[in-house]
């Protein structure tokens, strides 16, 4: 876990919002046809009102920081929170 990389990733409100949405995907992505255990399909993030390329950039930052993981299934890419890394980060921050 790279604490500095995570802090940089969390510095943008859209990325924090994406992580919040991913915490309860059923509540925020009700239109998804695929099971949520696969993650949330990248196309579902259009809800934030940003272009696909901007959303992809935000997801890439979150992935580099280890806060989300991705999985390609055919033509789709699915994203999930990395709860283990998030818990470790929160524990580290709590010890400051």
Automatic annotation (TrEMBL):
Question: Which ranges carry the HTH arsR-type domain?
Answer: 1-96
Question: What keywords appear on the UniProt entry?
Answer: DNA-binding, Transcription, Transcription regulation
Q: Which GO terms describe its molecular function?
A: DNA binding; DNA-binding transcription factor activity
Checking PROSITE patterns in the record gives: HTH_ARSR_2
The record's section on Pfam families has: HTH_5 (PF01022)
Does the record's keyword annotation contain Transcription?
Answer: yes
Under SUPFAM superfamilies, the record lists: Winged helix' DNA-binding domain
The name of this protein is Transcriptional regulator
**Taxon lineage:** Bacteria, Pseudomonadati, Pseudomonadota, Alphaproteobacteria, Hyphomicrobiales
